[in-house]
Amino acid sequence: MMIGRGRRRLATVLGATLLLAVTMIAMVPLRAAVPERTGQADEPFAVEYYYKIRWGHFAEFLELYRRNHYPILKKLQEHGRILEMHAVSPRHHAGEGTRWDFRFTIVYENVDVAHNPDVELRESIIRELYPDRETFEAEEQRRFELFEEHLDVPIQSYSLANW
After folding, report:
1. Tell me, what DSSP letter sits at residue 1?
2. How many helices and strands (H and E) does the chain possess?
3. What is the pLDDT of residues 122-141, one digit of tens each?
4. Which of 121, 111, 89 is nearest to 44 (CA)?
5. pLDDT tens sequence across 71-114
6. Where residue 3 falls among pLDDT bands split at 50, 70, 90?
7. Could you write out the three-class secondary structure of 24-86?
8. Number of Cβ within a 10 Å radius of residue 47
9. Over 90: is that where the pLDDT of 25 sits?
10. How far apart, in whole angstroms, are the C-alpha atoms of residue 150 and residue 49?
């Protein structure tokens, strides 16, 4: 009986490995067809930030994001480092493996601004907006505790007029 289970496990592992290998091989032509771009120094650069929040804590996460993180982003937008921002959440939940609860998209001035934040500017904004630094840091720590997963996904837009 143990031999049967072992064979089933082996067959499952081999099947999953084969499926992964076939998927990866099938994706090679697709990847080759999509141009690799990391962003040009003189063009806007967009990043999507995905958050998977612990069940039952979305409202608390959203309130902390709105109160402590978004005002900093707005100030960075006033300084021209951020061009656009958009927030969305799904109307219905997905399966646990693919679930995300909140997506915040930021279009930065360029790739350099996205990857090299002006630490001094950010620090001066935080001092201006949050004179009670201890409360700010405690609330930010709580916000980070509320998400199970966080993904930063740089995205490339395509003009469909040129297709």
Report:
1. -
2. 6, 4
3. 999 999 999 999 999 999 99
4. 111
5. 999 999 999 999 999 999 999 878 888 899 999 999 999 999 99
6. low
7. HHHHHHHHHHCCCCCCCCCCCEEEEEEEEECCCCHHHHHHHHHHHHHHHHHHHHHCCCEEEEE
8. 17
9. no
10. 7
Task: Note whether 143 and 64 are within 8 A (CB).
Answer: yes
Alpha-carbon span 74 to 36, nearest angstrom: 30
Instruction: Give the residue from 22, 62, 70 showing the smallest Cα distance to 147.
Output: 62
Q: What is the pLDDT of residue 38?
A: 52
Whole-prediction pTM value? 0.72
Q: Return all residues near 69 (Cβ < 8 A) that are at least 6 apart.
A: 140, 143
Q: CB–CB of 40/157 below 8 Å?
A: no
CA quadruple 8, 14, 18, 19: dihedral, nearest 10: 40
Integer Cα distance of 55 and 114 in angstroms:
30
**Residues forming beta bridges with residue 102, ordered by sequence position:** 51
Q: Which helix (H) or strand (E) holds 108?
A: strand 102-108
Cβ-contact 136, 72 below 8 angstroms: no
pLDDT in tens, 31-82: 333 333 455 678 999 999 999 999 999 999 999 999 999 999 999 999 999 9
